[in-house]
Amino acid sequence: MAYDYELFVIGAGSGGVRASRMSAAYGVKVGICEDFRVGGTCVIRGCVPKKLMVYGSKYAHAFEEAEAYGWSGLAPKHSWATLRDNVGKEVDRLNGIYLRLLKDAGVTLHMGRGRFMDRHTLEVGKETITAEKFLIATGGRPEMPDIPGKEFAISSNEAFHIDDPLPKRITVVGGGYIAVEFAGIFNGLGSKVDIVIRRDRVLRGFDEECRTFVHESLEKGGIRIRKETEIVRIEATDGKAPYKLHTKGGEVLETDLVMYATGRLANTAGIGLEKVGVQVDKKGAVAVDEWSKTTAANIWAVGDVTDRINLTPVAIMEGHCFADTEFGKKPRKADHRDVPSAVFCQPEMANVGLTEEEARQRLGAVKVFASTFRPMKQTLTGGEQRTFMKLIVEAATDKVMGVHMVGDDAAELIQGLAVAVKAGATKAQFDATVGIHPTAGEEFVTMRAPRPEPGPVKAAAE
Ligand code: NDP
Questions:
Q1: Which of 143, 162, 169, 448 has the smallest number of CB atoms closer than 10 Å to its CB?
Q2: Domains in the chain, start-ordered, CATH in brackets?
Q3: Strands in 213-273 per DSSP E
Q4: Ligand 1: residues within 6 Å at CB?
Q5: How far is ligand 1, taken at its centre, from the CA of residue 149, in Å?
Q6: CA separation for the pair 305, 32 (Å, rounded)
Q7: Residue 212 half-sphere exposure toward CB, CA atoms < 13 A
Q8: Catalytic: 120?
Q9: What is the pLDDT of residues 235-249, one digit of tens each?
Q10: Confidence category of residue 460, pLDDT binned at 50, 70, 90
Q11: Which residues does 77 contact at the CB level (< 8 Å), separation at least 6?
């Protein structure tokens, strides 16, 4: 039977666009559908606009510090509308680039939501499309609370479009990547920010010492963190701010904007997966094997919809591996080991490899090298922020198994060091590397003495 396409991709985000372009480059007839905007979460309402807003918010700190370096007469005022609209224009530009990339690659775009009719047939709006193979790359969406008054809360999707002026008081619920990043943005732009978390510290899952360091640094930077607090109801008069946040403990917190960042869910509802035998896991994510193959023979899935490591470069890697394997005669599996990542909170955190806790559990004997210091830039300003760095070394092999940093430019530094970790570099090779002076990064190649065992120094917040 002749199908309309050899490959049809559902979802034009990072993973879907990469897979479709690479497959088309192998001479395959490819179609793709998208129900929102080509580019996906990362480009349209995630990593890219978020990072631009982080840049915008950081000027506040630069202005504060500038006086110690001799600058005076700075009385800057910030316009949220200007930042928001300029970021929006950049998103539009990137959206245009993504559209052009698809067109130039010969991939046919169909706007609309895809829904399986059977294993080879998809309904996209009013169109019926047939394909030999399908790739599901529908990404994720914010998980919102199921509490009375939830309609008054926004998610990160809406955070890029908040009305001007930015509210004076903003409450962010959750302590993950998105929560701490937006808390830093709003704080830098002059709002009074509260983070509400249900446990004792932000960023569960990261190295314990780094979490504590970030938590304390956020507080030093002026963000109030309400620990062990759960919001059970949101109340508003006439549906407008100020909002009253009722806690489980009976407190009432007042705020002008409440943003939830309590995790994301895979976009699997309404695609007709049950009709084609694609199984999902307990959280609703598409179950795949190491080749990104679903439980249906002609259907694959990549990116956040599979809930493996929910990061753009990982979705791109998975999409590229799929195309190489299925159409490029170069079978290769996505390698999910030693994936570096960064959290663009202020100060920034980045890491690659194992946390100290994982290393102790998996490797047995480990050596930990750690350093906390005042960044050089702060010596004139008297600022309180510190930088934290940590290397985790397997005692038996001398291999560096984890590198962690909290401080300025952590993401840029860790990207470079991730190559060394991926290549299996040893601590001796780190020691043999000459530093660049004066930088923060040189600390990573000059850490001489391991911390006395056992274990990390107990942090104050524990
Ligand atoms: P995360 O999974 O990172 O964090 C969710 C947070 O919400 C946790 O702190 C969790 O805290 C808390 N939480 C969960 N349920 C509730 C609840 N019912 N009430 C209160 N708190 C709750 O999710 P995000 O939404 O921050 O980010 C989603 C994904 O997006 C991330 O996993 C990441 O992969 C990706 N991302 C990556 C970025 C980057 O690379 N820089 C930036 C932004 C997003 P608890 O400890 O209590 O469970």
A1: 448
A2: 5-142+265-326 (3.50.50.60), 150-262 (3.50.50.60), 347-445 (3.30.390.30)
A3: 224-226, 231-237, 240-247, 252-255, 257-260, 264-266
A4: 173-179, 181, 198-199, 204, 261-264, 310-311, 341-344
A5: 21
A6: 16
A7: 11
A8: no
A9: 999 999 999 999 999
A10: very low
A11: none
